[in-house]
Amino acid sequence: MTLHQLFLADLGPDLELTPETLRQAGFAVRRNRNEWLLRQRTRAVIEMIAHTAEQWLEPTHGYRMIALREAPRETGWSPATLARGLDAFFGSITVESLEALVAQDLGDTRRLDDFGAGSAEHRTGRTSMAVGPELLVHLTAGNLPNPALFSMILGLITRSAQIVKCPRDAALLPRLFAHSLAATESKLGACLELVSWSHDDRNARDLEDLLFAEASCVTATGSDEMLAGVRPRIPARTRFVGYGHRLSFGLIAKESLSPYSRKRLVRSMADDITAWNQLGCLSPHAYYVEEEASGSAETLAAELADELDRREATEPRGSIGVAESALIQSRRSTFELRAGAMASLTERNLNRSLFFEPPAMVRLWASTESTAWTVVLNHDARFQPSCLHRFIELKPIREWAELLRYAEPFRHQVSTVAVAAPDDRLPEIARRLAHWGASRICPIGRMQEPPAAWRHDGRPALGDLVTWTDLET
User: Fold this and answer.
1) Do 433 and 331 fall into the same domain?
2) How far is CA 326 from the centre of its chain?
């Protein structure tokens, strides 16, 4: 199976885009949106999206096969890691989940189709309707495909014409998804345009400024520095929705460290660490372990290392760049030096009352002859971002609330906190985390599997895109 040239991004790096080309592309998708997509009912659009997602779950689906064959060269992920990520994402895209998203954010699944009213509006003699942007422009990041794919889904649900700008080296998976939508319904694909260029291309800024001038709404996913550079360039009349860099971590309550619970817990931790090789904002950088008995966190770390070693045989990490590999080696060396220093102090009968005070105890487990995985037991509970690519720290603490103090410097960057805790403790933990600033709390093992209706960075995904029209009678 080969890809037809449906989108500008299909033409490859030899195509020299110009602002006029983009202007014509914007005109075409807006025309197609106004003549066809705008007339479709929400349920019909959702069914087309869900049908496309269901096909991606089939092992013999042509676009999926291209992805598993060609994307590893572009992304570095192994086919097994990529397949699991695609299954998790497309498995969450169903008619039921997308209708739940619309009802959650807009109050009713029909609010994009016609005027309607809830009980409060009825009492005031009003009805209202939600309208999506005429032209929605997405600036996507290259670390994970899911945000770009889901942005396209949101745009279709709001009946928006869309231009999706992808990094040149991360355009394949969005292109494949757009092609699959066009295969489901050609008119659906005609309301999309995909383009790609590099930030350092000669005319990159001119192309972006044209998109910003044409757009009704711009969404951008990327680093905080990238968003800070883009936001001032958006016209005042154009809505801007930005998703910056976020960090996530896990919390393990002491009750989850029993031999019976630990076995399942270790598998769930490995699921989170290996999903997309930790490269997403929802991936764990560390796990805080509420340790009641000395040594329980060390046992957990050793078992996690064994599990990651087994995963490398069945779901290898794949290739990474020289710089990333060097960073992992450097971080490993630092921890090995600290571990050696601690061993020397222990031999001199270090007082055990210093267990939770500096100098901090460190132990390290790592893959041999590669940087495929690394587990660090670090009694220095201060939070620090991981170098990712299956590099994880376990940090023992005496009480779970201590983590709020240790992670405080990164408080406003935290997205997800995964929690393993008994049912009677979870509500209080969740309340404290919510007031502290975490926007998503989930079970360990599901960090990279948010439901379709999750509120990205605590915001309503559809609600941030639409404009409301009130009808007073």
Assistant:
1) yes
2) 25
Which residue shows structure tokens 């500096």? Answer: 358
Helices 62-75/79-91 angle, 10° precision: 130
What range does the domain containing 410 cover? 247-443
Rounded to whole angstroms, the Cα distance separating 164 from 189 reads 12
Asked if residue 455 belongs to a domain, the reply is: no
Crossing angle between the packed helical segments 259-274 and 296-314, to the nearest 10 degrees: 50
pLDDT attached to residue 354: 46
> Phi/psi of residue 154, each to 5°?
-60, -40
Angle at 402 between CA 398 and CA 403, to 5 degrees: 115
How many residues in the chain? 473
Q: What is the pTM of this model?
A: 0.93
Contact present, 166 and 139 (Cβ < 8 Å):
no
452 found inside a domain: no
> 290 is written with which tokens?
């509420």
| 372 phi/psi in degrees, rounded to 5 | -60, -35
Place of tokens 């994402």: 89
* Structure confidence by residue, pLDDT tens digits, 404-415: 999 999 999 999
- Residues 384 and 307: their CA atoms lie apart, in Å, by 23
Q: Yes or no: say if 154 and 465 are a contact pair by the CB < 8 Å rule.
A: yes
Residues sharing a CB contact under 8 Å with residue 125, sequence separation 6 or more, in sequence order: 472, 473
Residue scoring higher pLDDT (15 or 327): 327
* 310 plus 329 within the same structural domain: yes
Based on the fold, state whether residues 176 and 251 are members of the same structural domain: no
Tokens 């309607």, residue? 116
Nearest 5°: phi and psi at 468?
A: -95, 140
Tokens coding 87: 């299954």
Q: CATH number, domain at 129?
A: 3.40.605.10
Same domain (yes/no): 229, 252: no
Q: Is the peptide bond before 145 cis (omega within 30 degrees of 0)?
A: no
414 and 366 inside one domain: yes
Residue-wise pLDDT for 335-373, tens only, equals 999 888 766 665 455 455 444 444 468 999 999 999 999
Q: Are residues 257 and 237 in the same domain?
A: no
d(CA 294, CA 352): 11
Spatial separation of the C-alpha atoms in residues 381 and 70, rounded to whole Å? 41
120: exposed, middle or buried (C-beta count within 10 Å: 0-12, 13-18, 19+)? Answer: exposed
* Domain tally, the chain: 2
Question: Which amino acid, residue 211?
Answer: L
Residues 45 and 23 in one domain: yes
d(CA 311, CA 454): 28
d(CA 473, CA 462): 27
